[in-house]
Amino acid sequence: MSTPGGGSMNRPSDLTRWTAAEMAAAVAIGEVSAAELTEAHLQRIARTDVQVRAFLHVARDSALAAASEVDARRAAGEPLGPLAGVPLALKDVFTTIDMPTTCGSRILAGWQPPYDATITRRLRAAGVVILGKTNMDEFAMGSSTENSAFGPSHNPWDLGRVPGGSSGGSAAAVAAYQAPLGIGTDTGGSIRQPAAVCGLVGAKPTYGGSSRYGLVAFASSLDTPGPLTRTVLDAALLHEVISGHDPCDSTSLDAPVPPVVAAARNADVAGLRVGVVSELSGDGYASGVLRRFNEAVELLESLGAKVTEVSCPHFGYALPAYYLIAPSECSSNLARFDAMRYGLRVGDDGTASAEQVMSETRAVGFGAEVKRRIMLGTYALSSGYYDAYYGKAQQVRTLIAGDFAAAFEQVDVLVSPTTPTTAFPLGERVDDPMAMYLADLCTIPCNLAGNAALSVPCGLAPEDGLPVGLQVMAPVLADERVYRVGAAVEGALDQRRGHALLEEANGVDEADDASGEAGR
Fold first, then answer.
1. pTM higher than 0.85, yes or no?
2. Which domains does the chain have, with CATH numbers?
3. Is 220 a known active-site residue?
4. pLDDT in tens, 22-74
5. Least enclosed by CB within 10 Å: which of 58, 115, 137, 242?
6. Cα(first)–Cα(last) distance of the chain, in Å?
7. E strands present in 179-296
8. pLDDT tens figures, 263-293
9. Annotation marks residue 133 as catalytic
10. How far apart are CA 57 and CA 42, in angstroms?
11. Which of 33, 105, 166, 416 is catalytic?
12. Which of 33, 143, 170, 190 is catalytic?
C-alpha cells in the first residue's frame, strides 16, 4: 500500500493523488470530468479495499450518475460549487435514501432509510459525489473501528494497525487515496483521533455548527459531524459546504459560518498567542509523539507565534466525566432500537411477548461495547445514582468549559498532541476498555465544552514511522483560528520537506550545509 504524502506544485498523473481543491478546479474548467474522477476512485477502491476494508457499501451506479449530472451542469454553463464533482466517503451513521445505513451494527444490517440526513442533502446539493458508506465502530462507540459488527478497517500506513475510530473507515479511505474527502462524526475525538493516526487533517466544528439531523445519535449533546481530508484547505472547503443553520436540528446554531476557507488560505500566525496545555502531556505519552509535538510548537514560534504554557486544571477529569455523560445519552438514544419498528427482529415466533422479542433482538443485535455503554448509562441515570454520577459529571463539564474560557482570555488557541500514541496494533486493546478509552484523552475536553478543534499532521514518530497529529483548539465559533494555525504548520512542513528533497536530489549532506558549502 502507498502511504499518504504532502502536496506538490505539480499535479501527479494519478487522478486519485490530486487534492480536492485541484479536482474541483479541474472539473470547473473542463480539464477533467467528474465522471473520470469518480471512475478513477472507484477503481482504486476495487483494487485496495480488500486489504483496507474502509467501505461497507460502494454505490457505484449512483456515484457515476451524480458525477454525470455535474458534468452536464458544467456543459450547460451552470455555476458549480467549490467541491462539485469531487468524490467523498460518507460515514455509515448518516441516513441516505439510496443506500443502507447500518451504523456498523447488526441491529440495522440492510436498513435503508426513508430520508437523507441534512449533511447528505448538502453534499448532494453541492455536487459532491458520494462514493459509498464507510465502516465505523458500532454506533460510533470506539477508538479503533474494531467494534464494527462487520470487521475492522485497516490503517493504510501499516495494515496491521488500527485506523482509529469511530470514523476509522472514512479516515482509512482518504489515507488510501480511495477518496479525497471523508465525512466523520466527533463525539469524543472520533474525527481527530483517526486523522492523527492516519496522517490526515480532521476537524471538529463548533458544536451546533454542522447539523445532526439524520445523524443516528450516540450522544446528542456531543455528536458533531466534520471533515477528514489530506490538506487543510480541502478540510476548510468541506467544512463550509456542510455547515450552517438547520431548522430541523434544535441544537443547530443560527450564526454565520466562520470564514474557514479564507483562514486556510491565510497561513500567517505572526503575533498569534498559542497556549500549550500543560495537562495534556507527560506520562502515558509516547516519546516520539511528544518529540514531534514539541517540534511543531517550535515551528509555530519560528513563524512568529507567541507561545506560552497554559494550565487547564480540570482537563484531568474529562475522561471519567465523558464516560458517564456519553453512555447516559446513549442509553436513552439507543432505546429506539426495539425490534418493533425497523431493523433486526429476533425471536418473533408468534407466541413471544414484545418484551421477549425486544430482549432477544437487542442481545443479538448489539455488540459488547454498545451493551457495556448502555448498561453504564442506565446505571448512571437510575434512581439514587443520578445525582452522584450523571449530575456530578455535568458539573465537571461546566468546570472544563470554565478552564477553556479562562485559557482563551490569555491565548488565541490552545495546542496539544491529538493522541498520546501513534496507531496501535489491531487486537492490542480490544480486551482492555480503559486502554482503548485513553486514545481520546486529549480530544474529549473540546467535545464536553463544544469548542472547535482540528488535528493536522506534524510528522512521523521516529520509533515506528507512523503519523503524529497536532491538535489545535479554539473558542466556540472561532473555527477559523484552527484552520489558520493548521495551514501554517502544513505549509511550513511542506516547505521543509521540499527543501530536504531538493538537497537530497543535489547530493547535499548535512555536514556541507552546516559548513556553509551548500550548493557548491
1. yes
2. 15-317+396-505 (3.90.1300.10), 318-395 (no CATH)
3. no
4. 999 999 999 999 999 999 999 999 999 999 999 999 999 999 999 999 999 99
5. 115
6. 38
7. 181-185, 201-204, 225-229, 273-277
8. 999 989 999 999 999 999 988 999 999 999 9
9. no
10. 12
11. 166
12. 190
